[in-house]
Design brief:
Number of helices of chain B: 25
Structural class of chain B: alpha+beta
Helix content of chain B: 25-40%
Shape of chain B: elongated
Radius of gyration of chain B: 36 Å
Largest sheet of chain B: 6 strands, mixed
Structural class of chain A: mainly alpha
Distance between the termini of chain B: 97 Å
Number of strands of chain B: 20
Oligomer: heterodimer
Helix content of chain A: 55-70%
Strand order of the largest sheet of chain A: 1-2-3
Number of strands of chain A: 3
Strand content of chain B: 15-25%
Number of domains of chain B: 2
Largest sheet of chain A: 3 strands, antiparallel
């Protein structure tokens, strides 16, 4: 250990604040602003019940993000495994002491707070995997023995979330984990074999009815929306009608008839992009997508500039999670992805996901503020 | 221990792959944007149309059914408010459960439940089905109160057909019912089918309701309504509504008061009565007992009631004036007298009645065992002497008799618009050839059959309506045709001017004189059925028609009295009449099934009906003007 070198790099508080990635903060705030505006419209021109709460939550989450960003990257590295295992323990606890909510067990009560361990795991997995690969040399990454721990780190929580059952989050976790493994440098050959076996496993799950019937239903409806016009396909059709009738420049703010007349389910959460697209049209929808793309590009820039491997992988993990949210949600409402119940980050109403996303960007911010900090490679737990 | 923190190889791979990921993300964003472009710009028009279809539902406005009124405007069929509870299957998660929940407040039988489920299967989940109609106000308001707990339930105030005269006019009006698959497939276009599928919408099932269904039905209107995803109406767009057009009213020739009086007179019997305006052919009374209450049929017939009606030996579902066929018996004798004159006999032709006559291989026995003595044509009618006509029949060509009967109204149906009318039979050589078309050995006409036919027995059958037409034609000498619909909407066809029958007018005199004597001379078979007011002087003819063959064996042992026979083997009692004798205006026929004797049972009933007719004298009063009727009806449609 060489505390001398580390302390020489320690920065003052003001310095750190001045190094915050302000463009990223502005973009995130713009996206959240779009959420507030849309939620105000969904509530038929009212701050209640969603818009005001959304804005307040964003404000709190923004403070959390900045605070996390100001904390040094080594601190996060030290906390990586503890956070991962705490999230895992919570996930295991869910079926034992969890609350059942709409047919799925996702919540646990902890000191009066409702905690959704699967959300915590999104952060925990990114940190844990980044921490793991931080300690590996390039040539070790594709070694089969070194592949076993990350596969377990991904597989166990994905399996637990899947059994809750929350197909959307399980897919998201799995995809993020696999993406980090690739970014860490897994050889394409092994990756290809892995993907093939995953497809086989997926087919097996379908054949032997491991998937819940409603999950199979959703996938089949996605493949052929006409087979169930009043069920899942109905939502999709209504969503496409709302988007399509919005046209080039939209119907105007608060003029979205399809959404105002409640043809869409879960407008304040999963289908919020449709309302935005209906009221602000192609121009508005593409603009919102551009904001997301901007966030992704900026965060990737942070990852590329970071000196420590932990910071790089962690930042990219957050980027991948964020991007997957956006892709799955917007793809879903446009009929390009199955209706799996994934919210649109920072726009959809809902506290847990906002905290997850903002905490993730807090880590990215930390990587940015402390981008020139190196962290020596060690296999110590902390 | 410090190892190389900067692992350049590791960083190189990471950078490469991150750029790759960035490229992938860029491509996906491009794909998303392209998809948005497709949805929002290229297919925009298509989705705009779908969005409009989503928001606006076309709601069918059902028209009110046209009223049916009697000749003076009394309402025989109209519409009244009907509180109902409907169920929209599409808005329920679990149809059976939704029915159960409603079933907690009103009774839903197993049969009904099965019918509801059947309807849902047949009509699809988007069409509301009627759970129960004709709810009382308290039931209706309770259901409204409980509505939040009743998924898919939809209270509704509809209209239902109302027949204020109940069973009195059942056979004239008929009744309405929900459209069947056959009704639906017989419609010309989809919008008519949609109208017929509306819950509670009724089409004519029987009687005039069925025949004039198209006129009575009216035209559906429509209204655009703005709905939300739950199908709840947010706004009714009144400006773009086309109001429904009420059906045309139907004005009948029936006199509701007289109809009611006749029904009252026939009560307790299985009987039929028809009263005609002998000059115009207007049917004033078309009574059949027992009858059913068409108000109970509108709701859909209760199976037990239906079974009961079907098994009742008095046949309450049979429209006896039009569909009941009975041997006319002696009521035919005035016709036979006219036929005899056509064949060359004169009214002075005399026959000695000894109570029986021999023909072929057997005796024919007159109803009066001791015989009537010497009879001329007039007295043969007055006393209803069988032997007189048998003697004529021994040489009479049956075709002359059949021809005359036909000209006087028998053996044919009339255009009334009431389904199920029977033609009856008047036998002739030609008829027998056709009847036994496959059996040439049976086609020969035997003169013995003429002996049966001339007194209205044998193969001869007729309906009460035909008998009334016969009485009217004898009374006036005109070929009047009965009608029951005076006007459709504001269109009234002119009162037809009936042509004279192409039979020498003088031949009718003896028939009328004979009928006059039947009721107005002591010794006439229906002297007891006379009307004593001189200006109402009634001429009639009795008839008693056997429903069984009396064998020679039975006759030797003495004919069993009607009263001692089981009801369904007793003779039918018949009576035809017209009044006033000197200037006939009304004709009437009464048939009492298995009533026994015509003079004892049918005559007095006919007399009481005619008394009411003469007293009211409907022909002397102005009937309702169809133009004002149509106007009133249209106004009431707006008001409602």
């Amino acid at each position: 250990m060489s505390p001398m070198i580390l302390s020489s790099r320690r920065r003052g508080f003001r310095d750190r604040v001045s190094r915050l990635h302000f463009p990223l903060l502005i973009l995130l705030t713009m996206i959240a602003g779009a959420g507030v505006v849309t939620l105000y419209s969904v509530a038929e021109g009212s701050w209640n019940p969603w818009a005001l709460k959304h804005a307040t939550r964003y404000g709190a989450a923004l403070i959390l993000l900045v605070a996390m960003g100001l904390i040094g990257i080594r601190f996060w590295k030290a906390l990586a495994y503890p956070i991962y295992f705490a999230a895992l323990a919570a996930l295991i606890a869910v079926p034992l002491i969890g609350e059942s909510h709409m047919g799925a067990q996702r919540w646990i009560e902890l000191g009066g707070f409702q905690i959704q361990p699967s959300e915590a795991m999104k952060i925990g997995l990114v940190m844990g995997l980044a921490r793991y690969y931080h300690g590996l040399r390039a040539e070790q990454v594709s070694h089969i023995l070194y592949l076993i721990p990350p596969l377990l780190m991904i597989g166990v929580p994905v399996g637990l979330v899947f059994m809750q059952p929350d197909l959307g989050t399980a897919l998201l976790l799995g995809a993020t984990g696999v993406a980090i493994v690739f970014l860490a440098g897994l050889s394409w050959r092994i990756g290809f074999l892995g993907i093939v076996s995953a497809v086989v496993a997926g087919y097996g799950a379908y054949r032997y009815e491991i998937l819940k019937s409603y999950q199979i239903e959703r996938i089949l409806t996605f493949l052929n929306p006409d087979r169930d016009p009043l069920g899942q396909g109905y939502h999709l059709l209504q969503s496409k009608i709302a988007l399509g009738s919005g046209g080039l420049d939209g119907k105007g703010y608060m003029e979205g008839t399809q959404s105002q007349l409640k043809f869409l389910p879960e407008m304040q959460t999963d289908f919020i992009f449709t309302i935005f697209g209906e009221e602000f049209g192609f121009v508005g929808a593409v603009g919102l997508l551009a904001l997301y793309l901007g966030v992704i590009i900026m965060a990737m820039g942070v990852a590329l500039r970071a000196k420590s491997h932990f910071a790089r992988l962690m930042s990219m993990g957050v980027v991948v999670t964020f991007a997957l949210y956006v892709f799955i949600n917007t793809g879903m409402v446009m009929g390009l992805a199955p209706v799996v119940g994934v919210p649109l980050p920072l726009v959809s109403y809902g506290g847990s996901v906002m905290v997850t996303i903002m905490a993730g960007f807090g880590l990215v911010m930390s990587a940015h503020v402390h981008h020139d900090q190196e962290i020596m490679r060690s296999r110590e737990f902390f | 221990m410090r190892i190389n923190a900067q692992d350049p190889e590791r960083q190189k791979v990471f950078t490469r792959r991150t750029v790759l990921f960035g490229g992938g993300a860029g491509l996906i964003f491009a794909g998303l944007a392209a998809r948005l472009y497709q949805l929002q710009v290229i297919d925009h028009d298509k989705y705009v149309q779908l969005a409009i279809d989503n928001q606006f539902n076309r709601r069918i406005l059902t028209p009110l059914r046209g009223e049916i009124v009697d000749r003076f405007g009394k309402v025989l069929a109209s519409n009244r408010q009907n509180f109902r509870i409907l169920l929209v299957p599409e808005r329920t998660k679990d149809l059976e459960d939704a029915i159960d929940r409603i079933g907690q407040h009103i009774e839903i039988s197993e049969d009904k439940r099965a019918r509801i489920l059947r309807q849902v299967r047949r009509r699809g989940v988007f069409v509301p089905v009627e759970i129960q109609d004709n709810l009382s106000w308290s039931q209706f308001s309770k259901l409204n109160f409980e509505l939040p707990q009743l998924p898919g339930a939809q209270p509704d105030v509809g209209d239902t057909r109302d027949y204020p005269y109940g069973e009195a006019a059942a056979f004239v009006i008929g009744y309405v019912g929900s459209a069947t698959e056959t009704d639906l497939s017989s419609q010309e276009n989809n919008s008519q089918r949609t109208l017929l599928r509306q819950p509670g919408f009724k089409v004519g099932r029987d009687g005039l309701e069925r025949t004039y269904d198209e006129e009575l039905r009216g035209k559906a209107g429509q209204m655009q309504v703005k709905v939300n995803a739950h199908g709840r109406v947010i706004e009714e767009l009144k400006d773009e509504a086309t109001p429904p057009v009420k059906g045309k009213p139907l004005a009948l020739t029936i006199d509701a008061d007289l109809q009611l009086a006749a029904m009252e007179e026939l009560k307790g019997e299985s009987a039929a009565a028809v009263v005609l305006d002998a000059v115009t052919g207007d049917i004033l009374v078309l009574a059949s007992t027992p009858a059913f209450d068409p108000n109970t049929f509108n709701v859909g017939v209760d199976p037990t009631l239906w079974k009961e009606l079907n098994q009742n030996p008095y046949k309450p579902l049979m429209n006896k004036p039009l569909s009941g066929v009975y041997p006319p018996g002696s009521t035919l004798k005035p016709v036979s007298a006219i036929a005899a004159q056509i064949a060359g006999l004169t009214t002075t032709h005399r026959v000695r009645c000894t109570g029986k006559t021999w023909f072929g291989d057997r005796y024919f026995n007159c109803w009066k065992r001791g015989g009537h003595g010497v009879m001329d044509m007039r007295n043969s009618i007055k006393h209803s002497c069988d032997v007189y006509y048998w003697e004529i029949a021994k040489t009479l060509d049956v075709d002359i008799l059949a021809n005359t009967a036909r000209k006087l109204g028998l053996g044919q149906t009339y255009e009334l618009g009431i389904p199920g009318q029977k033609a009856g039979i008047f036998p002739s050589r030609e008829w027998k050839r056709q009847y036994y078309a496959g059996q040439p050995e049976n086609q020969t006409w035997f003169q013995g059959e003429t002996l049966s036919a001339i007194i209205g027995q044998g193969a001869v059958t007729s309906t009460p309506l035909q008998l009334a037409v016969m009485a009217a034609r004898i009374a006036t000498g005109k070929a009047i045709r009965p009608r029951i619909v005076r006007a459709i909407g504001d269109l009234a066809p002119p009162t037809p001017d009936a042509p004279l029958i192409d039979i020498d007018a003088s031949y009718f005199d003896v028939a009328r004189a004979g009928m006059d004597a039947v009721t107005n001379e002591i010794g006439g078979t229906a002297w007891r059925s006379r009307l004593t007011e001189p200006e109402w002087r009634l001429a009639g003819k009795t008839g008693t028609s056997q429903v069984r063959r009396i064998t020679a064996e039975e006759r030797r042992q003495g004919v069993v009295k009607n009263e001692d026979l089981p009801w369904d083997r007793r003779d039918h009692a018949l009576f035809i009449c017209f009044a006033p004798v000197d200037n006939p205006r009304y004709a009437c026929a009464v048939v009492v099934e298995h009533g026994g004797g015509g003079s004892r049972i049918a005559g007095p009933k006919a007399r009481e009906i005619m008394r009411a007719v003469m007293k009211k004298d409907p022909a002397s009063r102005p009937a309702i003007d169809p133009r004002s009727l149509a106007l009133n009806s249209a106004l009431s449609a707006q008001g409602g």
